[in-house]
Amino acid sequence: MTHTLIDGKKTAEELLIEIENKVDRLKQQNITPGLSVVLVGNDKASETYVRSKVEMSKRLGIHSVHREMSADVSEEELLQEIDNLNKDGAIHGILVQLPLPSHINTEKVLNAIDYKKDVDGFHTLNAGALSKGLEATIPCTPLGCIILLKRYIGDLSGKHAVVIGRSNIVGKPVGQLLLKNNCTVTYAHSRTKDLPAVCRQADIIVAAIGKPEFVNAEFVKDGAIVIDVGINAVENTDNSQRKRKLVGDVAFNEVCNKTSAITPVPGGVGPMTIACLMYNCLYCACLINGVEFDMADNLRA
Ligand code: NAD
Known about the structure:
By secondary structure, this protein is of the alpha/beta class.
Protein backbone atom coordinates (compact mmCIF):
# COMPACT_ATOMS: atom_id res chain seq x y z
CA MET A 1 0.00 0.00 0.00
CA THR A 2 1.29 3.50 -0.77
CA HIS A 3 1.36 5.63 2.31
CA THR A 4 1.46 9.34 3.06
CA LEU A 5 4.50 10.42 5.01
CA ILE A 6 3.26 12.80 7.68
CA ASP A 7 5.95 15.45 7.57
CA GLY A 8 6.36 16.96 11.03
CA LYS A 9 9.41 18.97 10.06
CA LYS A 10 7.59 20.78 7.25
CA THR A 11 4.41 21.28 9.28
CA ALA A 12 6.40 22.58 12.26
CA GLU A 13 8.20 25.08 10.02
CA GLU A 14 4.87 26.33 8.62
CA LEU A 15 3.47 26.61 12.13
CA LEU A 16 6.55 28.52 13.32
CA ILE A 17 6.18 31.04 10.48
CA GLU A 18 2.53 31.51 11.48
CA ILE A 19 3.53 32.02 15.14
CA GLU A 20 6.30 34.47 14.19
CA ASN A 21 3.76 36.59 12.27
CA LYS A 22 1.38 36.56 15.23
CA VAL A 23 4.21 37.48 17.62
CA ASP A 24 4.97 40.45 15.35
CA ARG A 25 1.34 41.51 15.45
CA LEU A 26 1.27 41.28 19.27
CA LYS A 27 4.41 43.42 19.42
CA GLN A 28 2.58 46.09 17.44
CA GLN A 29 0.17 46.17 20.41
CA ASN A 30 3.19 46.57 22.74
CA ILE A 31 2.99 42.99 23.97
CA THR A 32 6.16 40.91 23.67
CA PRO A 33 5.55 37.27 24.62
CA GLY A 34 8.09 36.15 27.23
CA LEU A 35 9.18 32.62 28.07
CA SER A 36 11.24 31.53 31.04
CA VAL A 37 12.86 28.10 31.01
CA VAL A 38 14.09 26.82 34.36
CA LEU A 39 16.75 24.12 34.36
CA VAL A 40 17.72 22.35 37.57
CA GLY A 41 20.97 20.39 37.52
CA ASN A 42 23.23 19.57 34.59
CA ASP A 43 21.67 16.63 32.80
CA LYS A 44 23.14 16.76 29.28
CA ALA A 45 19.91 15.88 27.45
CA SER A 46 17.96 18.49 29.45
CA GLU A 47 20.62 21.11 28.70
CA THR A 48 20.26 20.40 24.96
CA TYR A 49 16.45 20.63 25.11
CA VAL A 50 16.61 23.91 27.04
CA ARG A 51 19.13 25.40 24.62
CA SER A 52 16.94 24.58 21.61
CA LYS A 53 13.87 26.05 23.33
CA VAL A 54 15.69 29.30 24.13
CA GLU A 55 17.13 29.54 20.60
CA MET A 56 13.73 28.94 19.03
CA SER A 57 12.14 31.65 21.21
CA LYS A 58 14.81 34.10 20.07
CA ARG A 59 14.23 33.20 16.41
CA LEU A 60 10.52 34.02 16.75
CA GLY A 61 11.10 37.28 18.61
CA ILE A 62 9.87 35.87 21.91
CA HIS A 63 11.67 37.36 24.92
CA SER A 64 13.38 34.43 26.61
CA VAL A 65 14.95 34.06 30.01
CA HIS A 66 16.98 31.04 30.96
CA ARG A 67 17.35 30.24 34.69
CA GLU A 68 19.87 27.63 35.79
CA MET A 69 19.78 26.20 39.29
CA SER A 70 22.18 23.68 40.80
CA ALA A 71 21.15 20.05 41.23
CA ASP A 72 21.09 20.44 45.05
CA VAL A 73 18.82 23.51 45.03
CA SER A 74 16.16 23.22 47.73
CA GLU A 75 12.50 22.86 46.86
CA GLU A 76 11.84 26.17 48.67
CA GLU A 77 14.36 28.03 46.51
CA LEU A 78 12.86 26.60 43.32
CA LEU A 79 9.34 27.50 44.49
CA GLN A 80 10.57 31.02 45.29
CA GLU A 81 12.00 31.34 41.77
CA ILE A 82 8.68 30.22 40.29
CA ASP A 83 6.86 32.74 42.48
CA ASN A 84 9.14 35.51 41.16
CA LEU A 85 8.42 34.44 37.58
CA ASN A 86 4.68 34.26 38.28
CA LYS A 87 4.85 37.92 39.34
CA ASP A 88 7.08 39.02 36.45
CA GLY A 89 4.91 40.94 33.96
CA ALA A 90 7.40 40.36 31.11
CA ILE A 91 7.03 36.57 31.41
CA HIS A 92 3.95 34.84 29.97
CA GLY A 93 5.22 31.27 29.93
CA ILE A 94 7.14 29.30 32.56
CA LEU A 95 8.64 25.92 31.78
CA VAL A 96 10.44 23.82 34.37
CA GLN A 97 12.51 21.26 32.49
CA LEU A 98 11.78 17.70 33.66
CA PRO A 99 12.94 15.45 35.18
CA LEU A 100 13.69 17.23 38.46
CA PRO A 101 16.11 15.79 41.06
CA SER A 102 14.44 13.21 43.32
CA HIS A 103 14.46 15.44 46.46
CA ILE A 104 12.05 17.84 44.74
CA ASN A 105 8.32 17.16 44.56
CA THR A 106 7.64 17.54 40.82
CA GLU A 107 3.85 17.77 41.19
CA LYS A 108 4.18 20.55 43.80
CA VAL A 109 6.54 22.51 41.52
CA LEU A 110 4.33 22.13 38.43
CA ASN A 111 1.28 23.26 40.40
CA ALA A 112 3.17 26.29 41.77
CA ILE A 113 3.32 27.74 38.24
CA ASP A 114 0.52 30.23 37.57
CA TYR A 115 -1.84 28.11 35.42
CA LYS A 116 -2.08 30.98 32.93
CA LYS A 117 1.71 30.78 32.42
CA ASP A 118 1.76 26.98 32.25
CA VAL A 119 3.21 26.58 28.73
CA ASP A 120 3.73 22.83 29.21
CA GLY A 121 0.09 22.26 30.17
CA PHE A 122 1.12 20.05 33.11
CA HIS A 123 -0.66 22.06 35.86
CA THR A 124 -3.53 20.12 37.44
CA LEU A 125 -5.97 22.92 36.51
CA ASN A 126 -5.03 22.66 32.83
CA ALA A 127 -5.05 18.85 32.88
CA GLY A 128 -8.48 18.95 34.56
CA ALA A 129 -9.85 21.53 32.12
CA LEU A 130 -8.64 19.41 29.18
CA SER A 131 -10.29 16.30 30.59
CA LYS A 132 -13.58 18.25 30.94
CA GLY A 133 -13.26 19.48 27.35
CA LEU A 134 -12.79 23.10 28.51
CA GLU A 135 -10.34 25.68 27.18
CA ALA A 136 -6.87 24.78 28.48
CA THR A 137 -3.19 24.96 27.70
CA ILE A 138 -2.52 21.64 26.01
CA PRO A 139 0.72 19.69 26.50
CA CYS A 140 3.02 20.31 23.53
CA THR A 141 3.56 16.78 22.19
CA PRO A 142 -0.15 15.79 22.19
CA LEU A 143 -1.00 19.14 20.59
CA GLY A 144 1.56 18.42 17.87
CA CYS A 145 0.06 14.96 17.23
CA ILE A 146 -3.45 16.39 16.77
CA ILE A 147 -2.32 19.22 14.51
CA LEU A 148 -0.53 16.66 12.29
CA LEU A 149 -3.61 14.41 12.19
CA LYS A 150 -5.96 17.29 11.33
CA ARG A 151 -3.63 18.56 8.66
CA TYR A 152 -2.97 15.23 6.95
CA ILE A 153 -6.15 13.25 7.67
CA GLY A 154 -8.80 15.93 8.19
CA ASP A 155 -11.99 14.91 9.97
CA LEU A 156 -11.25 12.27 12.63
CA SER A 157 -14.92 11.64 13.60
CA GLY A 158 -15.81 8.03 14.26
CA LYS A 159 -12.29 6.71 13.83
CA HIS A 160 -11.14 4.16 16.37
CA ALA A 161 -7.90 5.42 17.94
CA VAL A 162 -5.73 3.19 20.09
CA VAL A 163 -3.26 5.15 22.23
CA ILE A 164 -0.42 3.01 23.57
CA GLY A 165 0.82 4.67 26.76
CA ARG A 166 -1.02 6.45 29.57
CA SER A 167 1.51 9.02 30.82
CA ASN A 168 0.28 12.45 31.92
CA ILE A 169 2.67 14.04 29.43
CA VAL A 170 1.68 12.19 26.27
CA GLY A 171 -0.69 9.21 26.39
CA LYS A 172 -3.52 10.56 28.56
CA PRO A 173 -3.81 14.03 26.95
CA VAL A 174 -3.48 12.70 23.40
CA GLY A 175 -6.39 10.33 24.09
CA GLN A 176 -8.47 13.20 25.48
CA LEU A 177 -7.78 15.28 22.38
CA LEU A 178 -8.74 12.40 20.09
CA LEU A 179 -11.97 12.07 22.07
CA LYS A 180 -12.58 15.81 21.67
CA ASN A 181 -12.21 15.22 17.93
CA ASN A 182 -14.92 12.53 18.06
CA CYS A 183 -12.72 9.46 17.87
CA THR A 184 -13.57 6.28 19.73
CA VAL A 185 -10.58 5.99 22.03
CA THR A 186 -8.94 2.95 23.58
CA TYR A 187 -6.04 3.40 26.00
CA ALA A 188 -3.56 0.54 25.95
CA HIS A 189 -0.64 0.22 28.36
CA SER A 190 1.80 -2.19 29.94
CA ARG A 191 -1.01 -4.28 31.51
CA THR A 192 -3.12 -4.52 28.34
CA LYS A 193 -3.78 -8.12 27.29
CA ASP A 194 -3.01 -9.13 23.71
CA LEU A 195 -1.84 -5.66 22.68
CA PRO A 196 -1.33 -6.58 18.98
CA ALA A 197 -5.00 -7.71 18.73
CA VAL A 198 -6.20 -4.48 20.41
CA CYS A 199 -4.06 -2.39 18.05
CA ARG A 200 -5.27 -4.27 14.96
CA GLN A 201 -8.73 -2.80 15.62
CA ALA A 202 -7.36 0.73 15.29
CA ASP A 203 -7.89 3.19 12.46
CA ILE A 204 -5.32 5.37 14.25
CA ILE A 205 -2.47 4.11 16.45
CA VAL A 206 -0.57 6.58 18.62
CA ALA A 207 2.56 4.92 20.03
CA ALA A 208 3.95 6.63 23.17
CA ILE A 209 5.72 3.81 24.93
CA GLY A 210 9.46 4.48 25.07
CA LYS A 211 10.49 1.11 23.60
CA PRO A 212 12.45 1.15 20.33
CA GLU A 213 10.55 -0.27 17.32
CA PHE A 214 8.10 -2.06 19.61
CA VAL A 215 5.06 -1.71 17.31
CA ASN A 216 5.58 -4.10 14.39
CA ALA A 217 3.48 -5.18 11.41
CA GLU A 218 1.50 -7.58 13.62
CA PHE A 219 -0.04 -4.55 15.42
CA VAL A 220 -1.26 -2.72 12.32
CA LYS A 221 -4.33 -3.37 10.16
CA ASP A 222 -4.12 -2.47 6.47
CA GLY A 223 -4.75 1.23 5.91
CA ALA A 224 -4.24 2.35 9.52
CA ILE A 225 -2.73 5.74 10.39
CA VAL A 226 0.29 5.57 12.70
CA ILE A 227 1.62 8.41 14.85
CA ASP A 228 4.95 7.51 16.42
CA VAL A 229 5.76 9.65 19.46
CA GLY A 230 8.74 7.59 20.61
CA ILE A 231 12.28 8.95 20.57
CA ASN A 232 14.85 6.30 21.38
CA ALA A 233 18.60 6.52 20.87
CA VAL A 234 19.91 3.09 19.82
CA GLU A 235 23.18 1.69 18.57
CA ASN A 236 23.70 2.25 14.86
CA THR A 237 24.32 -1.11 13.21
CA ASP A 238 24.87 0.14 9.67
CA ASN A 239 28.30 1.23 8.47
CA SER A 240 27.86 4.98 8.89
CA GLN A 241 30.11 7.09 11.10
CA ARG A 242 27.52 7.63 13.81
CA LYS A 243 27.51 5.26 16.78
CA ARG A 244 23.91 6.07 17.80
CA LYS A 245 20.74 6.83 15.85
CA LEU A 246 17.20 7.82 16.76
CA VAL A 247 14.32 5.44 16.22
CA GLY A 248 10.67 5.62 17.24
CA ASP A 249 8.44 3.18 19.09
CA VAL A 250 7.32 1.86 15.69
CA ALA A 251 9.33 -0.44 13.39
CA PHE A 252 8.92 2.03 10.53
CA ASN A 253 10.30 -0.05 7.63
CA GLU A 254 8.18 -3.06 8.52
CA VAL A 255 5.01 -1.09 9.24
CA CYS A 256 4.93 1.75 6.69
CA ASN A 257 3.62 -0.27 3.73
CA LYS A 258 0.60 -1.45 5.74
CA THR A 259 -0.38 2.10 6.69
CA SER A 260 -2.21 4.81 4.79
CA ALA A 261 -0.21 7.49 6.65
CA ILE A 262 2.65 7.42 9.13
CA THR A 263 5.04 9.79 10.92
CA PRO A 264 8.78 9.13 10.57
CA VAL A 265 11.33 9.36 13.39
CA PRO A 266 13.13 11.71 13.25
CA GLY A 267 11.08 14.33 11.43
CA GLY A 268 7.60 13.45 12.69
CA VAL A 269 6.21 14.39 16.09
CA GLY A 270 9.57 15.62 17.47
CA PRO A 271 9.78 18.94 15.56
CA MET A 272 6.12 19.61 16.34
CA THR A 273 6.78 19.54 20.09
CA ILE A 274 9.04 22.58 20.16
CA ALA A 275 6.82 24.43 17.66
CA CYS A 276 3.87 23.75 19.98
CA LEU A 277 5.82 25.13 22.93
CA MET A 278 6.13 28.40 21.01
CA TYR A 279 2.42 28.11 20.15
CA ASN A 280 1.60 27.74 23.86
CA CYS A 281 3.76 30.72 24.75
CA LEU A 282 1.84 32.84 22.26
CA TYR A 283 -1.44 31.38 23.60
CA CYS A 284 -0.50 32.28 27.20
CA ALA A 285 0.58 35.82 26.20
CA CYS A 286 -2.82 36.30 24.50
CA LEU A 287 -4.69 34.82 27.48
CA ILE A 288 -2.92 37.01 30.03
CA ASN A 289 -3.40 40.17 27.96
CA GLY A 290 -7.01 39.46 26.99
CA VAL A 291 -6.14 39.33 23.28
CA GLU A 292 -7.92 36.91 20.94
CA PHE A 293 -5.80 33.85 20.02
CA ASP A 294 -6.76 33.71 16.35
CA MET A 295 -5.21 30.43 15.22
CA ALA A 296 -6.92 28.65 12.29
CA ASP A 297 -9.13 25.66 13.19
CA ASN A 298 -6.76 23.12 11.63
CA LEU A 299 -3.99 24.53 13.82
CA ARG A 300 -5.93 23.95 17.01
CA ALA A 301 -6.42 20.80 19.03
P1 NAD B 1 6.39 7.04 30.04
O1 NAD B 1 7.50 6.11 30.38
O2 NAD B 1 5.95 8.05 31.04
O3 NAD B 1 5.11 6.18 29.63
C1 NAD B 1 5.22 5.06 28.82
C2 NAD B 1 3.88 4.39 28.73
O4 NAD B 1 4.05 3.25 27.92
C3 NAD B 1 3.32 3.94 30.06
O5 NAD B 1 2.02 4.45 30.21
C4 NAD B 1 3.29 2.43 29.97
O6 NAD B 1 2.09 1.86 30.49
C5 NAD B 1 3.36 2.16 28.48
N1 NAD B 1 4.10 0.93 28.24
C6 NAD B 1 5.33 0.60 28.69
N2 NAD B 1 5.65 -0.66 28.30
C7 NAD B 1 4.59 -1.11 27.58
C8 NAD B 1 4.33 -2.32 26.93
N3 NAD B 1 5.19 -3.31 26.93
N4 NAD B 1 3.15 -2.45 26.30
C9 NAD B 1 2.26 -1.45 26.31
N5 NAD B 1 2.45 -0.26 26.90
C10 NAD B 1 3.62 -0.11 27.53
O7 NAD B 1 6.82 7.75 28.68
P2 NAD B 1 6.30 9.10 27.99
O8 NAD B 1 6.87 10.27 28.68
O9 NAD B 1 4.83 9.04 27.79
O10 NAD B 1 7.04 8.99 26.57
C11 NAD B 1 6.77 7.94 25.68
C12 NAD B 1 7.73 8.01 24.50
O11 NAD B 1 7.54 9.24 23.84
C13 NAD B 1 9.21 7.98 24.87
O12 NAD B 1 9.92 7.31 23.81
C14 NAD B 1 9.62 9.43 24.89
O13 NAD B 1 11.00 9.62 24.60
C15 NAD B 1 8.77 9.95 23.76
N6 NAD B 1 8.47 11.38 23.85
C16 NAD B 1 8.64 12.07 22.71
C17 NAD B 1 8.35 13.41 22.68
C18 NAD B 1 8.51 14.13 21.38
O14 NAD B 1 8.70 15.33 21.37
N7 NAD B 1 8.37 13.43 20.23
C19 NAD B 1 7.91 14.07 23.84
C20 NAD B 1 7.71 13.32 24.99
C21 NAD B 1 7.99 11.96 24.98
